[in-house]
UniProtKB/TrEMBL annotation:
Name of the molecule in the record: WYL domain-containing protein
Keyword Transcription regulation among record annotations: yes
PANTHER family linked: PROTEIN PAFB, PTHR34580
Residue span, HTH deoR-type domain: 9-64
Protein's UniProt keywords contain Chaperone: no
Species this protein is from: Lentzea kristufekii
Biased amino acid composition, Basic and acidic residues: 158-169
Region listing for Disordered, in residue ranges: 158-177
Length: 327
């Protein structure tokens, strides 16, 4: 049965390991101060970590210190309670990542659970997580690793791309050549963001539609994504905007509905109550026709505030609807 002293030592080892993992170099005096022990105790604890298989180097210098590095074998893993919960959550939602790691994630969760204390195991078992929505297209893990390697090595990528709707018997297209920059997950799908010299522009490709070719191409000088924010840049591209992360077509209407009924379906639009059953809605879309169709979904009278392009789009939509009825 563990004594109070051994429990304290184990907790201190866990805290020491977490600190060594958090930054590259730690002065011995600072470690002792953070752990509220003597530097001699820190040296003994470092020796215990080495016995467990962790590679901890002594750093020479005025302050002296320690550095944790990767070893040739995987030593026992030590997690605090928050890390264990975070790991369990990550493994349970891995099924929706589309990275082909569902079975491995399930086995890893079983392994982690087996070594947890009973109290922590009960907390993990209480987690009920369900991935909602359509199942994301699966991507081969090896493809993701290859893409990550080419991004890190800054090597040009060659691949065939299966465009949606393209007939199977269509004339084959030459391989794409792209400078890969970022591998991104968005709404459960994996995308590659890269620079195309041929198009002289940034391009986004769904990874599940890529068939990689080998060998990779020459090295390239890394470019900066416009704006410096990859997430914002991709969000703008998916909205059809070549600039800021905003819909290129934005309009304003007043709907003959209460605020509560409009807010439920306003998406990223802005709503404002202007009367008991009148709500102002400011929304956007990639085209004026798409915006008019989006607003027409509300089963209510619509007053177009502006701009004129939105009014014209409603007129065109009404004409098409009238022709559909006559047909």
């Amino acid at each position: 049965m563990p004594t109070a002293s051994s429990t304290t030592t184990s907790a201190r080892l866990l805290a020491l390991l977490s600190m060594l993992q958090a930054r590259r170099d730690w002065p011995g005096g600072l470690l002792a101060e953070r752990l509220d022990v003597s530097e001699r105790t820190v040296r003994r604890d470092v020796d215990r970590l080495r016995e467990l298989g962790y590679v901890v180097h002594a750093v020479k210098g005025p302050d002296g210190g320690y550095r944790l590095e990767a070893g040739s074998q995987m030593p026992p893993m030590l997690f605090d309670e928050e890390q264990a919960i975070a790991l369990a959550v990550a493994l349970r939602i891995a099924v929706s990542a589309g990275a082909g790691i569902e079975e491995a994630a399930a086995r890893a969760l079983v392994t982690v659970r087996q070594v947890m204390p009973s109290r922590l195991r009960r907390r993990v078992d209480a987690l009920e997580i369900t991935a909602a929505g359509a199942t994301a297209p699966q991507v081969d893990t090896e493809v993701l690793l290859t893409l990550s390697t080419t991004i890190r090595n800054r090597e040009e990528l060659r691949f065939d791309y299966h465009s949606p709707g393209r007939p199977d018997d269509a004339e084959p297209q030459p391989p794409r050549r792209v400078q890969p920059h970022h591998l991104v997950v968005r709404s459960g799908r994996w995308y590659l963001l890269g620079w195309s010299d041929e198009r002289q522009d940034w391009r986004t490709y769904r990874v599940d539609r890529m068939t990689l070719r080998v060998p990779t191409g020459p090295r390239f000088t890394r470019r900066e994504v416009p704006g410096g924010d990859v997430a914002a840049f991709l969000s703008a591209r998916f909205k059809g905007s070549a600039g800021a992360d905003a819909w290129p077509c934005r309009g304003e209407v007043v709907l003959g509905l209460p605020l509560a009924e409009v807010a439920l379906f306003a998406g990223d639009g802005t709503v404002e109550e202007v009367g008991p059953a009148r709500t102002r809605l400011m929304a956007g879309s990639w085209s004026w026709a798409a915006l008019a169709a989006r607003l027409a979904r509300f089963d209510a009278e619509i007053e177009v505030v502006g701009p004129p392009e939105l009014r014209d789009a409603f007129a065109a939509l009404a004409g098409r609807a009238a022709r559909a009825v006559r047909g």
